[in-house]
Amino acid sequence: MKKMNIVLLALALAFGVGCAKKSTAPVPGTINTFDAYAARTIGDAQQALVSTKAWEFCSDQKFPAQVSFDGNSYPCDPAAGPFPSVGRPILYKAEQSYNVALSAAQAYHSGASSDTAGLTQALTQLGIDIGQLLTGIGKGN
Amino acid sequence: MLSIITIILGLVPVVLKGIPGISATIQQIIADVTASVAALLGSGALTQPNANTILAAWAGVIAALKNDPNLPASSLSAVAELEKIVQSVMLQDSKLAQSVDWSTFHQITPVA
Question: Residue A49's domain spans which residues?
Fold first, then answer.
């Protein structure tokens, strides 16, 4: 079942990349539609990861008013309850995937790299890891 | 194109179905919403308004679950937090569909 979920996620992401390449609508701040797709994936993933990490930090520190990491502060909500222990290793893995994808996306955006295959693979892995992370923490424990 | 949003919205029912002790009525609602959402996600025609509508549907299911005293509080708090995260991602996604500021993206320090 877990393998099937991963396959479905990979297919969905692969389909998504294909759609992005065919789209022609430009987005301000991007150099082309693939760049826009990469930026959107990175931005969405960053939001999911930062929100999840804030929950983890708040839980670990017994829910103070706010927590700080990576140069930013985030408010805590005690109603969130304890961060699920199952989420820690998958959050760590997703953060690593995010950093890899971000570096690749920034290199593509700046023109330092034209490796679309490598970036696609990094974004696909990031999507899979984000999906597994949210599924894991949503189930709790 | 909403790839991560598409994935996230597709995962919500997986999480909800995993909550132990859900009543048959709610299970049927989850199945009905899942079928409708699957048709939309599978069509490849997911737009921002559609995504918001899907999230609103799941929010309604989650609200109903919160009112069921027979469900474990730990499961519901985790689902409620997941809902908040999904909402924040959707807000971010709608902004990125309009314009992108690459300076807002930063590395995240993994903590083992």
Answer: 2-139
A135 to chain B, closest Cα gap in Å: 6
The strand ranges marked E within chain A are: 66-69, 72-75
Q: What angle do CA A120, A69, A42 make, to 5 degrees?
A: 15
Q: Does B108 touch chain A (CB under 8 A)?
A: yes
Q: Are B110 and A99 in contact (CB under 8 A)?
A: yes
Its pTM stands at 0.83
**One pLDDT digit (tens) per residue for chain A, 141 residues:** 455 454 444 444 444 444 444 445 579 999 999 999 999 999 999 999 999 999 999 999 999 999 999 999 999 999 898 999 989 999 999 999 999 999 999 999 999 999 999 999 999 999 999 999 988 888 776
A69 neighbourhood in chain B, CB within 8 Å: 109
Is residue A106 within 8 A of residue B105, CB to CB? The reply is: yes
Q: Is B11 close to A17, i.e. CB distance below 8 A?
A: no
CA distance B30 to B35: 9
Please list every residue in chain B whose beta carbon sits closer than 8 Å to the beta carbon of residue A30. Answer: 100
- From B70's Cα to the closest Cα of chain A, the distance in A is 17
Q: A71-106 as b/e, with b when 16 or more CB fall inside 10 Å?
A: eeebebeeebbbbbeebbebbbbbbebbbbbbebbb
Stretch (H or E) spanning A121: helix A116-139
Domain count, chain A: 1
As a dihedral over the C-alpha atoms of residue B6, residue A70, residue A121, residue B16, rounded to 10 degrees, the angle is -30
Contact A136, B10 (CB under 8 A): no
Q: State the complex-level ipTM.
A: 0.82
